[in-house]
Amino acid sequence: MAPGQTRGHRSVPVGGLWRALGLTLASAVVWGTAHVAAGRRAAGFALMGLLVLLVGGAATAGELFQDQLKQLVVQNTWLNVIIAVLLALAVVWAAVVIRSYQVVRPVGLPAAMRVASTTLVVVLSLLICTPFVYAANTTYVLRDTLSKIFPGGDKSGPKVNAANPWKNLPRLNVLLLGGDGGKDRTGIRTDSMTVASIDTKTGNTVMLSIPRGLYGFDMPPQLQSRFPNGYTGEVGCGVVGRDCGLLNELYLYGEKHPELEPGYEKGQRGPHLLEDVIGYLTGLKIHYYVLVNLSGFKDIVNAMGGVTVHIEKRLPIGGEPERGIPPSGYLQPGTHHLNGEQALWYGRSRHADDDFHRMDRQKCLLKDIAEQADPQKVVTHFEKLAEAATNTIYTNIPSALLPALVKLSGTVKHGADITSLTYNPDKIPGFHTDRRADATIIQVMRRTAANAIADSENPHKPSASPTVKRHKKKTPTTSPTAGATASNGSVSLKNVCG
Asked: What is the pLDDT of residues 114-132, one digit of tens each?
């Protein structure tokens, strides 16, 4: 009597079942394995060839067309295509696994064994589908996030020429705003205001940091009839320069007075008023703005796994010395890995030094975050990161410009020089923050910005202005306030942050 056979019963092909399951598992990795083993060589080799084409094509595209792929994944149409391809691939791969089992499954299996083996194959198919479904869901979240952050409803910026976005735009000027909105705050005060002026060919960038305490400044021509003596804030708010008339309260003023920026909705009026005013102060045309609500900034840092920074001096966390409220803790000097809350206070703390040191720390923090973004952590925490970004970042940059911005950011990251210019009275002759920013001070601001930009555009040539010099250091420092400073107050961000 044969093994596995009892008197009066047929043998149960247990060995054949294990072989079939093994071949099915192998086919899940290398398509066509089961078909070749079953003698269906044409079908088997065709499946193997198709797999090689898929894997080889994906690897080749990833290696040779990285820049183009980065530009594709910020376009809704292509994201929809990617989602469809991923889901289709999941279905096809599962179908290959199931069909592989069918061609090698032994006949004559008892019902219980058929059910058990079929269940195992279905589970294997689901496991195969899971990565593709996860990738499709992540792509969907990316598409949804981009649609929310870049809705395209605010058409204030220049019209985008998709074929050549920078044709008539040699420099792109973006206003970066950090707002302090939160549960314990009424409205938003923009305590961080920086203009990033980017050369669209070379990627060389000048970052102009505007003091939040600038006050009584002359307004653009269209607003001078309302503010003939400079910005004074709300009527009856107090003493200009101490209680009101400050640049960091202009966002809230614009939101409360829609007539200043007609045609814009709530949430857009404040940023556009700042665009107009800061553009007037610096003599630059501001094309777009990006507003980051600092209350959600910590969530972004946490989703990225934290950030490592060099702290120059002990920085208090919270506290209000003028009201006798002590800090809740301190950030100690040295190089430390900070979580979101700590990183937020590294950028916001101001009682240990002044606003100008704080502005330098904020630029260094952004630089550190950009350089330390770990792709693996970004992918594994993508949904948290996307949710934090959606609730934290607001902009009028149109989605049609995203592919060009992705390409430009690659230029900035690989070799472009980023110059930092902080409007600091101690470094810029003729600039003051202890008196009203009248026409004379505004002329200094414009001239300084123009000189810094001209120097950035011609980094290896003598500066056109005797007040502009470019300094390099062989060994970068790690202090956010160190580095060689030009006579116009500008310094390479490499030297500022190390």
From this structure: 899 999 999 999 999 999 9
* Token representation of residue 414: 């690989």
First to last CA, the chain: 82
**Are the CB atoms for 87 and 136 separated by under 8 Å?**
yes
Question: Which secondary structure element, helix H or strand E, spans residue 175, and what is its range?
Answer: strand 171-179
- Could you give the CA distance from residue 366 to residue 477 in angstroms, rounded to a whole number? 17
Contact 421/454 with Cβ under 8 angstroms?
no
| Backbone torsions φ then ψ of 336, nearest 5 degrees | -135, 150
Q: How confident is the model at residue 443 (pLDDT cuts 50, 70, 90)?
A: very high
3-state helix, strand, coil in the chain (%, to 5): 50, 15, 40
Which pLDDT score, from 0 to 100, does residue 323 have?
A: 77
The Cα–Cα gap between 369 and 194 comes to: 17
Q: What is the pLDDT of residue 95?
A: 96
Other Cβ atoms less than 10 A from the Cβ of 335: the count is 10
Supply angle C-alpha 381, 384, 388, rounded to 5.
135
Burial of 361 (0-12, 13-18, 19+ CB in 10 A): buried
> pLDDT tens digits for 49-80?
999 999 999 999 888 887 788 888 888 899 99
By the 10 Å C-beta count (0-12 exposed, 13-18 middle, 19+ buried), 477 is classed as middle
Three-state DSSP state, 200 = coil
User: Can you tell me which residue has the tokens 């990033």?
Assistant: 196
CA–chain centroid gap for 213, Å, is: 28
- Report the predicted TM-score, pTM, of the whole model to 2 decimal places: 0.81
pLDDT in tens, 248-284: 999 999 999 999 999 898 889 999 999 999 999 999 9
Q: How many other CB atoms sit within 10 Å of the CB of residue 442?
A: 17
State the average pLDDT over residues 354-368: 81
Q: Which of 380, 445, 450, 483 is nearest to 211 (CA)?
A: 445
* Helix residue ranges per DSSP H, 373-459: 375-380, 382-392, 402-413, 439-457
Q: Give 312's Cβ-side CA count (13 Å radius).
A: 19
Neighbours of 324 (CB within 10 A): 7
Kindly state the tokens that stand for 116.
Answer: 């058990």
Q: What pLDDT digit, counting tens, does each position of 296-308 carry?
A: 788 888 888 889 9
